Amino acid sequence: MAWKEEINSHGVHGESSLDSGHARLHELGYKQELKRDLSVLSNFAFSFSIISVLTGITTLYNTGLRYGGPLAMTYGWFVAGGFTMMVGLSMAEICSSYPTSGGLYYWSARLSGAKWAPFASWMTGWFNIVGQWAVTTSVDFSLAQLIQVIILLSTGGKNGGGYLASKYVVILFHGGILLIHAIINSFSIRWLSFFGQLAAAWNVLGVFVLMILIPCVATEKASAKFVFTHFNTENDAGIHSQVYIFVLGLLMSQYTLTGYDASAHMTEETKNADINGPKGIISAIGISIIAGWGYLLGITFAVTNIPYLLNRDNDAGGYAIAEVFYLAFKRRYGSGVGGIICLGVVAIAIFFCGMSSVTSNSRMAYAFSRDGAMPFSSFWHKVNQQDVPRNAVWLSAFISFCMALTSLGSLVAFQAMVSIATIGLYIAYALPIFFRITLARKSFIPGPFNLGRYGTLVGWVAVIWVAIITVLFSLPVAYPISRDTLNYTPVAVGGLLLLTVSSWFLSARHWFRGPITNINT
């Protein structure tokens, strides 16, 4: 691979008036094709909106309640959050040195050395982009499911003859949501910046309002002892080991704290990206940890009967947080309308999360196709008159819709595929970090943001944590193990690994050379 000669610093070569991110992109051998118009706030907003604690916690609160309950969620959140910050710090350091839309796969190429660069970037890129598509699929499908529950409660609830939309109606909701997201993402970056900042504000205000409102409205409240010390070991999964239960409960937290690579994928549209990209990653994780814990506490103080909330025969059909909201208002005011409105607040946050996810997907697809890694790369790499990779936007929406079609056959198959959203994406996060602390330990040239002498230590903590959760989240989640209870995560992730490796040896190794510069140097 013909790399442009590295310089010993990330200076601007005397062009003091040139944006530092633009200058660094030029040094790396790429033209400025996207419009560089995002501030540090906008960059942060995209990652914060994709992490979206309202989305992740609401979607997987059932998992948290079932496996460990209040104690596992309250303390497990900080366990997952602390290690996620280690991953984020390592990614931020690399992002500062290589602020390109390619993000992770580009980093792997530069850090693994010329010999391994094509294979490293191929593996990282496909895990990253498929993981991102899985995130968009799971986010927008969870919104479709929440709409299903909102309609159910609005028409009387499960015990009052309410309307429960079929799986075919839910998939139509999912398709409609993706269509709207694709249209919005076809707008100019100025509009996306506006929507991104609106999304971040909505998430912050939504968390603040709900964490105070729900426990205040609830007539029956949990004690502080229950919230901070109750460990739920009662589950229908046949699992009794407390350590095992706690580990499974971590999935809610770790699933929520993903997607912050968006700040890296938006760097070619961010001003002074070598500084503001890393800021976006770290601030999105940090603020999400604080806001998420507040939301968790607020909701859990309104939880008094875990088995009832998880029961499929309650009014929300077993959707725990929806039942918490609905009951809080119904018991105090005789009507659950207020709870349904609160669910609407969450639904809008999930909508923004999916919107930002499509934005990040499209930038990754744009960069990956720019380097010729995808079929029909020249088509996906095109940008329109507003400097937006519109073809990549619609590709991302279409693939996310196709991935959700598996839900029509089996929810087990769908959940297995969506598991790539957590494990697949974190493997993509860990690969460039691993190369930075091994093959590039002595040759890595840090950017304006760096961890100094602690970079290697933080990197090893990050890589080891990803290795641990990859194993833990592949463990069985119910016993006895059957076709319906088997955890298909290792099957899905292993399938992706097999496809990626086999495609490399059968074809890509003959023509893919990793990231290629598009400036005549």
From TrEMBL:
NCBIfam families: 2A0304. The keyword Plastid does not apply. PANTHER family: AMINO-ACID PERMEASE BAT1 (PTHR45649). The chain crosses the membrane at residues 40-63, 75-95, 141-157, 169-192, 198-218, 281-303, 333-354, 392-414, 420-439, 451-475, 487-506. One of its GO terms (biological process) is amino acid transport. Belongs to the amino acid-polyamine-organocation (APC) superfamily. Amino acid/choline transporter (ACT) (TC 2.A.3.4) family. It comes from Dendrobium thyrsiflorum (Pinecone-like raceme dendrobium). It is found in: Membrane. One of its GO terms (molecular function) is transmembrane transporter activity. This is Amino-acid permease BAT1 homolog. It is a multi-pass membrane protein. One of its GO terms (cellular component) is membrane. It comes from the Eukaryota. Keywords: Amino-acid transport, Membrane, Transmembrane, Transmembrane helix, Transport. Its main location: membrane.
